[in-house]
Specification:
five-stranded antiparallel sheet; alpha+beta
């Protein structure tokens, strides 16, 4: 019991250290490149390879690409580019969950909370970013 409590304290401290607020100078310090043209096809291809049993309607693309900057923290590397919020419905254990995709030069350069990135941290980033992109996640 004591170990579990200590683990929870460290997890909470780690999450608190993830200051995701972005300063204006950070936003302007990078080149986002042109808006991607084939982003929907890239997302579908990415998920087709990773979902357990992809079903029609399993991928709900919630936003158009928008510029987004994810600052560097102790738990995540800096990411920036044209971001898209996607809600995915997959078989267990995850069920329905949000994801964010970052694009630069027509390529996916980062994904938060995808099948390769499940966990508390990826989920938190995806939820926050989907909200910033205009698609707050609701189960």
């Amino acid at each position: 019991m004591k170990r579990a409590l200590i683990g929870i304290v460290f997890l909470c401290a780690g999450l608190a250290a993830c200051d995701t607020a972005v300063r204006r100078d950070e936003l302007q310090s990078v080149d986002y490149g042109p808006r991607p043209q084939h982003w929907q096809k890239e997302i579908q291809s990415y998920l087709q390879l990773r979902l357990k049993e992809p079903q029609p309607g399993a991928v709900d693309i919630r936003t158009e690409p928008k510029i987004l900057y994810q600052r560097d923290t102790a738990l995540r590397a800096r990411q920036y580019g044209w971001a898209v919020c996607v809600w995915v419905t997959d078989r267990e254990p995850q069920g329905r969950y949000p994801m964010t995709f970052f694009f630069r030069d027509e390529k996916i350069v980062a994904v938060n909370n995808g099948p390769d990135d499940f966990g508390v941290i990826g989920s938190r980033y995806a939820r926050e970013q989907c909200e910033l992109l205009g698609a707050p996640f609701r189960r």
